[in-house]
TrEMBL record:
GO MF term set: endonuclease activity
SUPFAM superfamilies linked: Restriction endonuclease-like
Xref: InterPro entries: DUF559, Endonuclease_DUF559_bact, Restrct_endonuc-II-like
Name by which UniProt lists this protein: Very-short-patch-repair endonuclease
Domain DUF559: 11-109
Keywords: Endonuclease, Hydrolase, Nuclease
Top-level taxon of the source organism: Bacteria
Gene source species: Dyella marensis
Length: 131
């Protein structure tokens, strides 16, 4: 029991660290052009980070998507109906491959239209990018 609790606590800490790591990186050189908001409320849902002008939401996957797929599918549909695109990254990728994550976000900022590679618009939760 205690071992499982330690694993859960470690996982949560890793997600918080990954989120902060990514947030600080997004405040870098393109901050004036692509301003991200952290813990932003959109359509009643709290998202990790959002670039409102680009209609892009970036989230760190912490396993909640797999734990409650119907909730996250409805959440994804609502956010996409508001014109946002969702991009999810695993916390390990943010911590270990930040430059690749930033490159993916930069590519996504250059795209137009809702949905991401066809994911999400049919009710499926957008894929978690594994780099």
């Amino acid at each position: 029991m205690h071992r499982r609790r330690r694993q859960i606590d470690h996982h949560r800490l890793q997600c918080v660290q990954a989120e902060l790591h990514l947030w600080l990186a997004l405040q870098g050189e393109d901050a004036a052009r692509y301003r991200f908001r952290r813990h932003h409320l959109i359509a009643g849902y709290l998202v990790d980070m959002a670039c409102v002008p680009a209609r892009l939401i970036v989230e760190i996957d912490d396993g909640r998507v797999q734990a409650a797929p119907s909730y996250h599918s409805a959440r994804t549909r609502m956010l996409e109906n508001k014109g946002y695109r969702l991009r999810r990254f695993r916390s390990e990728d943010v911590l270990l491959r930040l430059s690749r994550v930033l490159a993916e976000i930069a590519r996504e900022l250059g795209r137009d239209g809702p949905g991401l590679n066809g994911h999400g618009s049919d009710g499926r939760v957008p894929r978690v990018v594994s780099l």
